[in-house]
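To the wet lab folks,

You asked to see what we're planning to order before we commit. Fair enough. Below is the target structure as tokens, and below that is the sequence we designed to fit it. If anything looks off to you, flag it before the synthesis order goes out.
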């Protein structure tokens, strides 16, 4: 079954949300999709906390998602993220394996 590498980012100052959104859309998500060799990627803003952003990277299996932490691609992307955003955005990461699906 498929697996996901998920990144939760929380911006500290809502004033940078539009800039963060543009940067993630135009630069970071495409770079991460390519660097991770994911099947696909998407992202969105929380409907509960407007300063929380999620990015999802889909893989054919758990091995692909588990390869991301510690990878050269992630190290490169983290370095660029930190260069651009510094302490304005905090992040956490998670690997999730799908164990059941229902419906279409």
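Sequence we intend to order:
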């Amino acid at each position: 079954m498929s697996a996901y590498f998920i990144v939760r980012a929380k911006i500290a100052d809502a004033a940078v949300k539009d800039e963060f959104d543009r940067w993630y859309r135009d630069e970071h998500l495409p770079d991460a999709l390519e660097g991770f060799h994911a099947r696909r990627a998407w992202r969105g803003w929380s409907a509960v906390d407007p300063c929380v952003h999620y990015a999802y990277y889909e893989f054919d299996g758990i091995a692909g998602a588990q390869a991301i932490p510690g990878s050269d691609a992630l190290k490169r992307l983290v370095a660029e993220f930190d260069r651009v955003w510094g302490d304005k955005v905090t992040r956490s990461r998670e690997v999730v394996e799908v164990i059941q699906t229902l419906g279409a």
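Structural context that might help your review: The chain has a mean pLDDT of 97. The chain has one domain: 3-97.

Thanks,
Computational group
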